[in-house]
């Protein structure tokens, strides 16, 4: 029996059993296609339809539960501390694994999923990597590890995890072309921009609607400040990546960043409109944090977005106590601060402080004390106009911000926040520091219109 074959209570295969096996196999393939490709398969009922079909085909199949519960966990939309249904789904999977004769590979998948549910991302990744040593074409392990590395800001690990298995994937292997997108993203996050773009374009030659490869190229153009090239690329391929219901909104977010760079603020709002509607409709954490990030950047550019903040806070307030990953927490704080909901802001920060006292094995809660809470406090100080204190809190953490997860482009918001705080601070040393940071930024990202604009502003403020 293969590791991912559905079990049956019957010793002798029947027509009904064969039909159930067939339904399961089709459902699993549909699920993996959606998960890896970020593609809308509306005729299959989306992720929910695929998962329902998995469980209907074999309600007690362990890997079916690993797949469905694992997806919900990596989506970070709910916390097992607070959501008893999700915590129960984890327990159910572990219990099923304990009373069935399953393969070592399946047991490792269950273990990794359980570790991730407890917030122990590093050990979960270790288990997924163990799977990949013996089963390098296990896309589920590869993709789960990729997502977890992303949440930890583990850029090198995210790249190398894919590099190690690449030789084992052949052109005829299902979903093989999508490894180009995964690998190119790791290359981009480790500053191999030219190689990342080359690999991503190879992926798009094989699969034009690979939204993750498009996403890599969008990042490369952002990090190299090749804004006109990025605008042309995103517009030229919009019809392809628009079909990705999971990633389309995020690609629009990248498009909006180009508009902000070129000071086309009105256009960035128009571009955001698509993301905005998706955020409210989907409940996706990626859509939600993108909306928060975009509004925060626009406000630093001088745009008043108070009404939008109030609307967005209606989405984020339900997640104030989640504390699944620090990256989400920081963006939820942006929304409560923007909406002037001081109670929600205080509740979020105090909750994070409490979890930091006894974090246990939860990697994100372990980082809350040294990294997460100070960044939150810096944002609170900035919101209150205490710019000098913002600098004192944020500057010592600038090389640890990577630990909150996300991408360089997403975390750049905090670099910009620090620069704005130095410019607004009355402390002369901070003002000099701000100009040094801008010189540094210009060296890393030459020809950036945003950097030039900030330099001009700094000189105008501190003549």
UniProtKB/TrEMBL annotation:
TM segment ranges: 35-57
Coiled-coil regions listed: none
Keywords: Membrane, Repeat, TPR repeat, Transmembrane, Transmembrane helix
Keyword hit for Transmembrane helix: yes
Domain of life per record: Eukaryota
Family matches, as InterPro entries: TPR-like_helical_dom_sf, TTC38
Family: Belongs to the TTC38 family.
Designated name of the protein: Tetratricopeptide repeat protein 38
């Amino acid at each position: 029996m293969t590791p991912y074959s559905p079990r049956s209570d019957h010793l002798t295969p029947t027509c009904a059993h064969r039909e159930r096996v067939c339904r399961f196999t089709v459902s699993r393939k549909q699920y993996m296609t959606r998960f890896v490709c970020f593609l809308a398969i509306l005729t299959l009922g989306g992720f929910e339809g695929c998962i329902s079909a998995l469980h209907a085909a074999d309600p007690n199949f362990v890997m079916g539960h690993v797949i469905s519960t694992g997806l919900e966990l990596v989506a970070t939309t709910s916390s097992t501390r607070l959501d008893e249904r999700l915590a129960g789904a984890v327990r159910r999977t572990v219990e099923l694994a304990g009373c069935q004769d399953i393969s070592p590979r399946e047991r490792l998948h269950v273990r990794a999923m359980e570790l991730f549910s407890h917030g122990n991302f590093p050990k979960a990744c270790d288990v997924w990597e163990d799977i990949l040593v013996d089963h390098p074409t296990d896309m589920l392990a590869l993709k789960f590890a990729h997502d977890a590395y992303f949440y930890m800001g583990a850029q090198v690990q995210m790249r190398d995890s894919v590099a190690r298995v690449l030789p084992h994937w052949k052109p005829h292997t299902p979903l093989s072309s999508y490894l180009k997108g995964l690998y190119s993203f790791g290359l981009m996050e480790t500053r191999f921009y030219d190689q990342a773009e080359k690999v991503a374009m190879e992926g798009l030659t094989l699969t034009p609607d690979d939204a993750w490869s498009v996403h890599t190229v969008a990042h490369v153009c952002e990090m190299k400040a090749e804004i006109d090239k990025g605008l042309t690329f995103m517009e030229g391929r919009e019809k392809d990546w628009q079909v990705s219901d999971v990633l389309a909104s995020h690609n629009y977010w990248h498009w909006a960043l180009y508009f902000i760079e070129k000071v086309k603020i009105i256009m960035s709002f128009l571009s955001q409109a698509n993301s905005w509607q998706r955020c409210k409709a989907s409940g996706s954490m990626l859509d939600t944090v993108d909306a928060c990030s975009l509004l925060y950047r626009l406000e630093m550019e001088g745009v008043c977005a108070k009404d939008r903040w109030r609307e967005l806070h209606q989405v984020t307030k339900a997640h104030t106590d989640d504390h699944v990953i620090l990256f989400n927490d920081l963006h939820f704080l942006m929304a409560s601060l923007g909406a002037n909901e001081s109670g929600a802001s205080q509740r979020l920060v105090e909750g994070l402080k409490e979890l930091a006292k006894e974090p246990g094995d939860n990697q994100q809660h372990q980082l809350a004390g040294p990294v997460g809470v100070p960044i939150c406090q810096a944002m609170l100080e900035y919101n209150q106009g205490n710019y000098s204190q913002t600098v004192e809190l944020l500057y010592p953490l600038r090389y640890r911000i990577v630990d909150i997860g996300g991408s360089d482009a997403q975390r750049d918001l905090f670099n910009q926040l620090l620069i704005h705080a130095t410019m607004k601070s009355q402390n002369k040393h901070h003002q000099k520091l701000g100009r040094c940071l801008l010189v540094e930024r210009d060296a890393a990202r030459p020809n950036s219109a945003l950097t030039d604009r900030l330099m001009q502003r700094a000189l105008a403020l501190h003549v």
